[in-house]
## 1
Amino acid sequence: MLELLIESSSSGEHYAVTFTREGTNLRTSCTCPAGQKGIHCKHRLSLLAGDLSSIVGEVPADIGAQLAALLPGSDVERVLEQLRVAEAGVTAAQAEVKRVKKALDRVMHS
Ligand SMILES: [Zn+2]
């Protein structure tokens, strides 16, 4: 298990974040309010994305490599990819709504 102490950029509070990888299962926890409710939080996601800037206290020298090894091939990586695809779908749908509204403007004002 990898345990890190981080500082919230918004509140300045310190939270403990843990990562445990067993096979393809990556379990995580964070003591922040969202983490306590079982909601994925930005603290864990930013660490998994390689942002080490929130880490406070003693930092293992190879922490970047340890964090980078957690995600590949994991269930969390698989669902993060589904989220990326879903968010791209939202972006495309928003662009289509904008395009169709402009088309409506054209047909209503001609
Ligand atoms: Zn958190």
## 2
Amino acid sequence: MRVVYAQPAYIQTLGQSTAIAEHVQVDFELRGCPINKAQLLELLNALLNGRRPNLSSHSLCFECKQAGRVCVMVAQGTACLGPITQAGCGAICPAYQRGCYGCFGPADSTGPNLAALGQALWAHGCTEAEIQRLYHSFNAGTPAFQNLTLEGKS
Ligand code: SF4
């Protein structure tokens, strides 16, 4: 809570917070808070023209590579959730030399491989506590992140 909410005055209300899709039919979901304006324009254009939105479902790493950015994790040892995070933000955080903390949620394409990234983070010097904190912020309630175990860590 201290990491995510600077002033957790109303944190107790989150106990009753549920996904909107549990209450109304959701036709399409745009990730991010805030959402990406280019993705919003693409979605509106697609809906107005009766076509499927052309929005990627791969991981954030693809956006870094397409932009020609050096990987912050490989080059600097900075912890980054890019390999398991949904693309769409334009890889903003790595552009400023910081790791992605996963605000676009888990990547859709193949399902996030949390165990493999955990091993890579471990190999780059992260402690188990740091990995747990990274994995238990915005995405902690998603099915992919629940019941997470970091095998081989002590
Ligand atoms: S945390 Fe990750 S997904 Fe969110 S803006 Fe930064 S790079 Fe993009």
